[in-house]
Amino acid sequence: MRRNLLSITFFCLVVFIDAKLNVVDLSIKNQPGNLISTDVRTSGRAPILISGNVTYLKDLSNEQRVSVDVKKTNGLLSVLDFPGLITMNICDAIKKFYDPYIKTTFKTGENTNLDFKNGKLCPIPKGTYWMKDIVLDLNKWKLPWWVLPGSYNINVSVLSKDGSPGGNIAFQAKLKRK
After folding, report:
1. Residues 123, 145: contact at Cβ < 8 Å?
2. Can the peptide bond before residue 32 be classed as cis, meaning omega within 30 degrees of 0?
3. Confidence at residue 16, expressed as pLDDT on a 0 to 100 scale
4. What CATH number does the domain containing 54 carry?
5. In this predicted structure, what is the pLDDT of residue 71?
6. How many domains does the chain have?
7. Residue 8 counted as domain residue
8. Which tens digit of pLDDT belongs to each residue from 116-139?
9. By the 8 A CB rule, do 56 and 64 touch?
10. 128-144 in b/e burial notation, b at 16+ Cβ within 10 A?
11. Any idea which of 47-51, 67-71, 104-108, 120-124 has the lowest mean pLDDT?
12. Is pLDDT at 10 greater than 80 in this prediction?
């Protein structure tokens, strides 16, 4: 009996880990601050395209931090809540998450004018950068095992040296199995 239960559990984990996911609904809320200002929007249905501008109001280096909060929701209830899932210095975050997230999403000269310098961009120079027709292909990313179909609220904040918010962008995404 135990062996059967263990086999079923292992099979379910393999199915969850190997699940292919599509973004079927996405909304974006721009929340400008004193470090970053965004004007980003979605268009299209399948795939959903992301376009707009991101303005860095000053050079951003490892003196500033990025914080990513993730909440999986089920209607009005919060099922999984990971506040500050990632909170790290900006340049360190670019280096750590360049491959596969940034590298597979942003192509300099094609869908953005920001050159990530193969993950070695530091500081991010002050200025306005565009992005056009970005597609979030989650199946190219190395997602954590707990990312399953459902609705997610993701908040990406830029924090100043003292930890105060300097602007953020919030996403609401619905994921379904492919």
Report:
1. no
2. no
3. 44
4. 2.70.220.10
5. 86
6. 1
7. no
8. 999 999 999 999 999 999 998 888
9. no
10. ebebeebebebeeeebe
11. 67-71
12. no
Contacts of 75 (CB under 8 A, 6+ apart): none
* Range 89-127 burial, b when 16+ CB lie within 10 A, else e: bbbebbbebbeebbebbbeeeebbebebeeeebbebeee
Higher pLDDT, 4 or 129: 129
Residue 136 included in any domain: yes
**Residue 9 confidence class, pLDDT cut points 50, 70, 90:** very low
Structure tokens at 116: 């990530």
Residue 96 amino acid letter: K
pTM for the model: 0.82
Residue 84 lies in a domain: yes
Query: Which position has the higher pLDDT, 45 or 16?
Result: 45
Return the residue matching tokens 């009996």. Answer: 1
For the record, the structure tokens of 110 come out as 């094609």
Q: Could you list the residue range(s) of the whole structural domain that residue 152 is in?
A: 20-177
Is position 42 within any domain?
Answer: yes
Q: Give alpha helix (H) positions in the chain.
A: 2-17, 90-97, 103-105
Hey, what are 126's tokens? 């002050």
| Sign of torsion over alpha carbons 113, 47, 100, 94 | positive
Report residue 85 as tokens: 């899932």
